[in-house]
Amino acid sequence: MPRIYNFNPGPSTLPLPALEKCQTEFLDYKGTGMSIVEISHRSKDFEAVLADTKALLKELFFIPDNFKIIFLGGGASLQFAMLPMNFIPTGGSADYIITGEWAQRALKEANIIARGRVAASSEDKQFTYIPSEKDLVIDPQAAYVHLTSNNTIFGTQYHAFPEVKGKFLVADMSSDILSRRVDVSKFAMIYAGAQKNLGPAGVTVVIIRDDFAATANSGLPTMLSYGTHIKGDSLYNTPPVFCIYLMQLTLQWVKEQGGLAVIEKINRQKAELLYQTIDESNGFYRGTVQPEARSWMNATLRLASEELEAEFVAEAKKAGLHGLKGHRSVGGIRVSMYNAMPLAGIEKLTDFMKQFKSKH
Ligand code: PMP
Asked: What are the backbone angles phi and psi of residue 358, rounded to the nearest 5°?
């Protein structure tokens, strides 16, 4: 069966060369006579995988030397809890910018553990925009300010990050990490579930600045303390070995493409082509968010009726374009176009959109 164009929001499409390399070396990893999932996580072979994955991420994402990179289980959702556990002091609070469901979930955990304050929210307009810097009300006592760089469900994205009055800035970059150049040094911590731009589900990357890590609370359960994983270099316990390995292959592919500058350029082209097709459709396709907040990773759109949307999704699937149904909470259409989606996939999709429009 030929491979389809996979627009799933996550887990999502991965680079074919990475999957092929994984397949080729699966039964005998580099002459060990074992697969990567059968060797010890403390073996030289896996240590090399771990070190190379970290080095590639550091190089490709321009992570400065005063950051540590750790690989954890539990998804980005566990970070929603670990962050306030580690960094809100007793009796303190942290600030959250609420731009969608994932930000709300992060806030929910902060409120279970300590106290989360809303510094700004776009809920008043169904999360169709990104609050501007001047609308942020930052608590001088906040332990940190948390934002979600790309809102996977609602289709908005930060295109410039706010100044947060000298507070530690923490970002959930699960759905746009390594899709474009960002100034990592502005952040105290960045975290991301791997299953969009980095690899398979099962591993979460945490990039944490030394001065922020130094402010962590003590007395936490061992596995829930960032310090444990920094000190153990992600090997305190058995890490998600296979996920880290497939992340290494994915990062190698990013490097072979020419690195982040090339990836960013292609991502911009893909988003421009798609949004242009929407805007030139005379209202047949309607983008759901404010144009300046449009995401390059997840584009959300509506058609005239739910029936027409269902037909669009079904016909697209027949044409080899899968995974276009919007999130169950908002409906409509969502086009997820992470790094591994080639420009050709968006060209095929936009051709299909034009044909579908003529037909209807
Ligand atoms: N944050 C964002 C922005 C997401 O898109 C997702 C998952 N789609 C999550 C957090 C939750 O990630 P996980 O399922 O890895 O816990």
From this structure: -60, -40
Sheet holding 116-121, edge to edge: 67-72, 204-209, 189-193, 169-172, 145-148, 94-98, 116-121
| Among the listed residues 72, 9, 15, 46, the one whose alpha carbon sits nearest the alpha carbon of residue 266 | 15
* Nearest ligand 1 atom, CA 80: 10
Ligand 1 centre and the CA of 100: distance in Å? 11
Active-site option among 68, 95, 167, 172: 172
pTM, two decimals, is 0.98
Is-catalytic flag, 233? Answer: no
Which entry of 68, 196, 270, 325 is annotated as an active-site residue?
A: 196
Instruction: Read off the tokens for 240.
Output: 């998600």
Q: Tens of pLDDT along 336-347? A: 999 999 999 999
Active-site residue, 134 included: no
Collapsing DSSP states into helix, strand and coil, what is residue 58? helix
What sign has the CA pseudo-torsion 33, 56, 210, 77?
negative
| CA atoms 3, 7, 12, 18: torsion sign | positive
Per-residue pLDDT of 80-132, as tens digits, reads 999 999 999 999 999 999 999 999 999 999 999 999 999 999 999 999 999 99
Distance in Å, CA 79 to ligand 1 centroid: 10
